[in-house]
Structure formats: structure tokens, C-alpha cells
Amino acid sequence: MRNKAVYIGVFGRGNQGKSSMVNALTGQQTAIVSDVAGTTTDPVRKSMEIFGIGPVTVVDTAGLDDPTELGAKRLQKTMQTLDQIDLALLVFSGNQWGASEIQLAEKLKSKDVPFVIVHNKSDLEGLSPALGRQLEARYGVTVCSCSAQTGEGVPDLVRAMVAAIPDSAYRSTSMVGDVVKRGDVVALVMPQDSEAPEGRLILPQVQMIRDLLDCHAIAVPMQLEELPLFLERQRPDLVITDSQVFAEVNKQLPADIPLTSFSILLSRAKGNFEYCLAGTPHIDRLRDGDRILMLESCTHITSCEDIGRVKIPRLLRKYTGKSLEFDHVSSLDPLPDLGRYAMAIQCGACMVTRRQIANRLKQIADFPLPISNYGMCIAYVTGIFNRVTAIFR
Known about the structure:
The chain is of the alpha/beta class. It has helices at residues 18-26, 69-81, 99-110, 129-139, 154-164, 167-170, 203-214, 227-233, 246-252, 262-270, 273-279, 307-320, 354-366, 374-382, 385-389, and strands at residues 6-12, 44-50, 54-60, 87-93, 115-120, 143-145, 185-189, 218-222, 238-241, 259-261, 291-295, 325-329, 343-346, 371-373.
């Protein structure tokens, strides 16, 4: 299964030509270029295709060396980007490799982020061969010399980027590759409520259909109302449902037919699945006044049928009989103080990359804080947790 876009971050001190490098890579005036230090403030993102890599999101970041109070806040934003990228370009020029570059290179190594060192503005001053060899030996990475202004060396940089990006950035684990085989009939129960976009399917449903096609299985999408008729005519090898209708599907489905959800399968492909499995039963230990951190990996307008902001909080309060409080973090916003929470519940994370969600869950696991997944949580309070996770145990 193909991942979403590969994320590439461009880092360096001010006036090293980072924004010009972004423009050279994208072939567009994506980032504002100026000789004035601090032109780039918040990270600027541009989605595009790079030949040899495919879809990418290039992230231009603020300079590493702004000594002002505002610069410190910009640097904090830049550092947060490290948990969201699959590859970093560390840009410097004039053979001036100093403390800022060393600190960032060490940070990238500690976070296991692949990176390429880029000596820019080679049209003004070429890279010292001795410095290039020294950096390659010290960090075990490729050092490229190029000019974003003239385009000299940019093709070589792209080739180095392709070589540096790990395979895991291109492909994520198949959601169903180890539980279905060629020719299996898989029923997909996909209710189209007010949360569904007009005239199209939500991303997890699209991803699942593509994954099943890649596995040469037979995908049969349907709404909940059509499930009884389908079961009269066909015995499926697996049923995958939207977690919100777990209870209804469970009642209609014979006990010997495997059942799971889109959210749970996404969790297997992208996150710390075993940690979520182990953390879900913590629901039974929730007490009055406990706060639960709801982690949404996208931003959207909420409605009365919103699963993370309405349905799950209502289900948990009813199941536990406790007065529970809920806080929400959207997209890849920084996590709050985890010490305030009794547990966390993560969505399926269809909108983010495997690395991004893995880094987020690692912060929670290292704290440590019990964590569940939307689908696992709903299954647990519905009483079918063991059934919907049985095929993975």
C-alpha cells in the first residue's frame, strides 16, 4: 500500500538559500526569497511530485540562528517539524559549518531521521573537498554541492535524496495482506452519514478498497441496510465495518465470520498496535474526573455525529458511568502535558504518514500513558473487543 506524500524538511541558518532550494526542487516560486534574515517564519509546505520519489511535501523552515525571542518560538516550530518528516536537507553555504549545523545534525541522528547535507551557493563558492569528506565520514550521509540559483548540482541532489529515503517512507504495511488471500470475499460496511463527504468516500474506505485490490481479494462495499440481503446471498470471508456501527453489524453477523474495522486495521498498519491493544482495557479503570486526550490526525468541521468529539465521549460516559472530561488535539499539533490525562485515544490516522503517527504514539508510550484507538475503544464498550481483534492475535 502506497503511503501518502513523503515529507522532506529543509533546514539551516538564515540566508543559506533554503527557500531558494525549495523553489529549485519544486520548480515554482513556492517560498518567498529575500536577503532579509527571518523572511521564512512558520514552516511553509508545498505538495508536488519529484521524479524518482513520487508525491512529496516539501517543508521550508525558519532559520536556526535567530537570537530574538520571536526567533526562539520559530525555532521551536522548526524542531517540531523533525517528528513529521521522512528526510531532511541540512543546507549551509560558504563552507561555514558551525554550531547550528552540528546541533541539528546530532538531533537528526538521535531521532533517526535520514538527511542529506547540502552546500548551497556553489556558484559563489564551491564546497571544500576536505570539508565534504569530513562531513561524510562524521555523519555517514551524502554531502552535495549545488546552486539553487543556477540549478547546478540540483539533479545530483535529487538522486541523493532518492537514495537516502528509506523504503518505509514509500510504502506502509498492507492493512489486510496477512489476513486475506487471493479470491477472498470481503464485505465493507460503509454507512454514509452526515460526516461522509458529499459525492465521495472517506479516505480510509478508499485506502481499504485499494489495498484489497492489491491483494486480489473481492471487495464488496455496502451500507448497513444492505448487509442482511448480502448475507442471504453470500458468505464473506471477512467483514470490515465503520466502527460506529459495530453493534449493529455484530448482531447480524454469524459468530464464525471474522469481523473488524477500518480504524483497527489502520492502527495495525501505522501505529503501535500492540500498545493500543494492551491499553484499551484501561477503560475499566477510569474514575470520576479523569481527563482523556482525544487525538485526531486531521482537522475538520465537527457535527452532531462526530465520532471523536461526540460519539466516543458519550459512549465512554455511558459505559463507565463516570464523569469524564475530554480534550482534543487536531492534526499534528504538539501534545499537551500528558500528566493531566488518564489515557489517550487515537483516531485511525488516515491523513498522516506512518512515521508521523509512530512518533506521536512513541511520546505517549514513553511517558507512559495508556492509549487506545477509536475502533478498539468502541469495540470494547460494545462488548466485542475480543471478536474484532481475534484475527490479529
